[in-house]
């Protein structure tokens, strides 16, 4: 079972990289990509915990934003983790998440929802990419809300008045950067319409020009008709089709391996990186 999209405590997942690796091993995952938001900080720990028969893939889920303000997540896989340009792009997006979070906290407190930046930072593991799930956890600890899910439903969705955009590269910039660093780029859950505004089918050709390699088709946030549309777009544009769990530990219902990538599709994708970088043992 090949699962190419998972999160750890290096971003907003609740399992440490070591716990994630152990779970993957015990649940029969054969190839796992660690794709924390705007970070590869969990990689060192993942490598240490890693053992056969699991194959491990370096990755990051890069936050991007289109010129129309649509939030798009790009999965970068198999790039050179030491590439300085890639590191700068990830660091810049990660760093701006602090002032962005401060703005969200200010909007909430101005409306009488009393949560502080300290509460949010206490909810986030040290060094983690700070995101709305940590704000949700802070609201849960304060007894304002019951769960991450309820926090997103009531207060934190992309359409909410408390939502603040990330300052991030465009999808094309991120894709080009991932490719330059030797990796492959897959657009994550592009038709997850209940999360907010999504890309049009027409915009995919620009992403292909920038170097896009694949589309995440099988993902729980896309219903069967959304998955079918993506499948035809992938076929038309000759892109690799992936499926993945987007596992976040206990932070979300998604279970490891609930959606997987077909071995033939993975073989194709892996061959598009500039080197073989999968860690086998
Ligand atoms: P951010 O990166 O701060 O914009 O937050 C986005 C993160 O929130 C993504 O990782 C999503 O997986 C997560 N998220 C979105 N909706 C929910 C939800 N209903 N419950 C838990 N996490 C969610
Ligand atoms: Zn997340
Ligand atoms: Fe995502
Ligand atoms: Fe994700």
The coarse overall form would be: globular
Work out the count of structural domains: 2
Assess the beta-strand content as a share of residues: 15-25%
Helix content: 25-40%
> Structural class given helices, strands, pairing?
alpha/beta
Low-confidence stretches: none
For the residues shown, what is the average pLDDT? 97
Output the number of helix runs. 10
- The strand order across the widest sheet is 1-2-3-4-5-6-7
Give the bound compounds. adenosine monophosphate, zinc ion, fe (iii) ion
Largest sheet: 7 strands, mixed
Radius of gyration, CA atoms, in whole angstroms: 18 Å
CATH second-level architecture of the largest domain: Alpha-Beta Barrel
Written as H for each helix and E for each strand, in order along the chain, the element string is EHEHEEHHHHHEHEHEH
Main CATH class of the largest domain: Alpha Beta
CATH H level, superfamily name of the largest domain: Metal-dependent hydrolases
Distance between the termini: 17 Å
Explain how this protein is built.
The chain has a seven-stranded mixed beta sheet. By secondary structure, the chain is of the alpha/beta class. The model has no long low-confidence stretch (mean pLDDT 97). Helix 7 packs parallel to helix 8 (204-210). The chain has ten helices and seven strands. The chain folds into two domains: 2-95 and 172-270, Metal-dependent hydrolases (TIM Barrel, Alpha-Beta Barrel), CATH 3.20.20.140; 97-153, DNA polymerase, domain 1, CATH 1.10.150. Strand 6, helix 9 (224-237) and strand 7 form a beta-alpha-beta unit. Residues 7, 11-12, 37, 133, 248 line the site of zinc ion (ZN).
């Amino acid at each position: 079972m090949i699962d190419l999209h998972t999160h750890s405590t290096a971003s907003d997942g609740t399992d440490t990289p070591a716990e994630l690796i152990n779970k993957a091993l015990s649940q029969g995952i054969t190839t796992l990509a660690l794709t924390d938001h705007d970070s590869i900080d969990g990689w060192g720990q993942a490598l240490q915990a890693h053992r056969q028969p699991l194959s491990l893939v370096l990755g990051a889920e890069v936050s991007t934003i289109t010129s129309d303000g649509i939030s798009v997540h790009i999965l970068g896989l198999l790039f050179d983790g030491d590439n300085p340009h890639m590191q700068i792009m990830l660091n810049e997006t990660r760093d701006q998440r602090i002032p962005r979070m401060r703005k969200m906290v200010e909007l909430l407190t101005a409306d009488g929802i009393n949560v502080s930046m300290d509460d949010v930072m206490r909810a986030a593991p040290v060094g983690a990419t700070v995101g709305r799930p940590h704000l949700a956890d802070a609201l849960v600890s304060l007894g304002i809300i019951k769960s991450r899910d309820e926090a997103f439903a009531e207060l934190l969705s992309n359409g909410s008045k408390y939502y603040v955009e990330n300052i991030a590269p465009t999808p094309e910039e991120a894709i080009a950067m991932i490719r330059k660093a030797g990796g492959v780029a897959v657009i994550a859950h592009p038709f997850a319409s209940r999360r907010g505004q999504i890309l049009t089918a027409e915009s995919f050709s620009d992403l292909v020009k920038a170097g896009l390699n694949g589309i995440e088709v099988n993902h729980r946030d896309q219903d069967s008709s959304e998955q079918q549309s993506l499948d035809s777009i992938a076929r038309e544009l000759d892109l690799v089709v992936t499926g993945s769990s987007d596992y976040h530990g206990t932070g979300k219902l998604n279970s490891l391996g609930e959606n997987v990538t077909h071995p033939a599709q993975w073989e194709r994708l892996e061959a598009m990186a500039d080197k073989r970088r999968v860690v086998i043992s």
